[in-house]
Design a protein that fits this description.
Layout: H1 2-22, H2 25-33, H3 40-62, E1 68-70, H4 74-83, H5 90-109, H6 112-119, H7 122-143, E2 147-150, E3 154-157, H8 163-180, H9 186-198, H10 247-272, H11 284-301, E4 306-308, H12 312-317, H13 323-333, H14 348-361, H15 374-390, H16 393-409, H17 419-433
Antiparallel strand pairs: 1-4, 2-3
Helix pairs in contact: 1-13, 1-14, 2-3, 3-11, 3-13, 4-10, 5-10, 5-11, 7-10, 7-14, 7-15, 7-16, 8-9, 8-14, 9-14, 15-16, 16-17
């Protein structure tokens, strides 16, 4: 009985951790999508529905501790390229998301996505895991204003005199100590403590106006209850989006989601050891099916594509190993159909701590790489470094694949290049061209 209670406690805490690391998407995704003309309140509802549906399905059907949510990058492509750049209505763009999901589902049923995973060289798998770790940490450091824009060098260190900088640093150190001492729920405790530390900002010292939409305080209570807006449900123009001119949009949605989800499953598996007897992510086929169905669901309810989230590593780090972790996280999203104002209480500098620490945890697979073999070390490095620098997991993977293939072919090791990898490279070049 004690072991059973410990299991449930661990899995539920892990689910809470993954939710706290991911819930920022409920605010960020609608903020990006609303620039396409979507009502912000309706985009909040759609985002919550996708997070809950995808995560719960992942837990029940695939039994994986992985959270599903609208993908960052995919939402930016939806708004700034498909709608504002190419002139699609958001209804047509939602139709393109729907068809990208249908394409995913076909690829998953035919096990083509499984074959793609098998074709990924083990060295690149380690690089993908580490690259995702660097990317996650970079996002966290940016959200915390620890790293800021710099006109001369692109990025620079934030001001050490800034209260947000100091509060984040204190919270990071305290949480790191708790993690090092193996305290149960260390990351959740760290987020709560940092939220408390951040309460005086804008009240007793400092000003968060520049990063908080003109609001000087960073921890804010804006109410409890708000009714959900379902006006985006079934607004997708499914028929109108099937036109030759829109095929490149569907392809990019499909290609980006494909490699975002695959790389996330591979990266999490390498970082956590959650692999089957063949060294591939556990329950991969079912996980990919859930990802595909969630993308279809995303188009129908009114948001950009849902995909596996790298922030799931936070819950896995807390001990989450089963679908109960994902189910817990998914259920925690649902109340925010009605209680979305409560999201403003936890500031970005608090949730960012989890992202930075998880990034450090994901460096472990690099110990498996033989750095003396240049034809493997260089592609791994390219994969790792380009993910944060281009702000794209997909871009890092593409150039990692291309570099690996070229080096193997020109060093007389063509036998190490899987034929499917050649096809992936061709599709990658097409993606870059589009």
């Amino acid at each position: 009985m004690r072991d059973k209670n410990r299991f449930f406690r661990t899995e539920i805490l892990a689910g809470v951790s993954s939710f706290l690391a991911t819930f920022y998407i409920i605010i960020v995704n609608p903020a990006i999508l609303s620039a396409s003309g979507m009502p912000f309140s309706a985009a909040v509802t759609s985002t919550v529905l996708v997070c809950a549906f995808g995560s719960i399905m992942m837990g029940i059907y695939a039994k994986n501790p992985v959270v599903i949510a609208p993908g960052m990058g995919l939402n930016a492509f939806f708004t700034y390229t498909a709608v504002l750049g190419l002139g699609l209505s958001y209804e047509t763009a939602l139709g393109a998301v729907f068809w990208a999901g249908v394409l995913f589902l076909i690829l998953s049923v035919l096990k083509i996505r499984d074959k793609i995973v098998i074709a990924i060289p083990h060295a690149l798998r380690y690089g993908i895991a580490a690259g995702i770790g660097l990317f996650v940490s970079f996002i966290g450091l940016q959200n915390a204003c620890f790293i800021i824009d710099d006109k001369a060098t692109l990025v620079g260190l934030g001001s050490v005199k800034d209260p947000m900088f100091l509060t984040f640093l204190i919270g990071l150190i305290v949480t790191a100590i708790l993690v090092s001492r193996k305290v149960t729920g260390a990351i959740i405790i760290g987020i709560i403590l940092t939220t408390i530390f951040a309460w005086p900002i804008g009240r007793w010292w400092g000003d968060a106006s520049l990063i908080n939409y003109g609001v000087p305080t960073i921890v804010n209570y804006t109410g409890v209850f708000s009714m959900p807006d379902f006006s985006l449900l079934f607004k997708a123009d499914i028929i109108g989006s099937i036109q030759y001119a829109y095929l490149p949009v569907i392809f990019v949605f499909a290609f980006t989601d494909l490699f975002d989800s695959l790389s996330t499953f591979v990266g999490l598996a390498e970082a956590s050891g959650y692999k089957d007897e063949d060294g591939n992510p556990k329950n991969l086929k079912k996980s990919l099916l859930v990802d595909a169905v969630t993308t279809i669901f995303s188009g129908l309810v009114g948001t950009s594509s849902g995909t596996a989230y790298i922030e799931s590593a936070v819950g896995i780090r807390e001990g989450g190993k089963t679908g109960l972790t994902a189910i817990t996280a998914g259920l925690l999203f649902l109340p925010f159909l009605f209680f979305s104002p409560l999201l403003s209480i936890v500031p970005s500098i608090a949730s960012s701590i989890a992202l930075v620490l998880v990034g450090s945890f994901m460096m472990k697979p690099l110990t498996k790489i033989d750095w003396t073999m240049a034809d493997e070390a260089i592609p791994v490095f390219i994969t790792m470094i380009l993910m944060p620098l281009t702000y794209s997991i997909t871009t890092g993977i593409i150039f990692g694949f291309l570099t690996f293939t070229l080096l193997k072919l020109f060093t007389g090791k063509k036998g190490e290049v899987n034929p499917i990898l050649i096809i992936i490279n061709i599709l990658s070049l097409l993606y870059l061209w589009l």
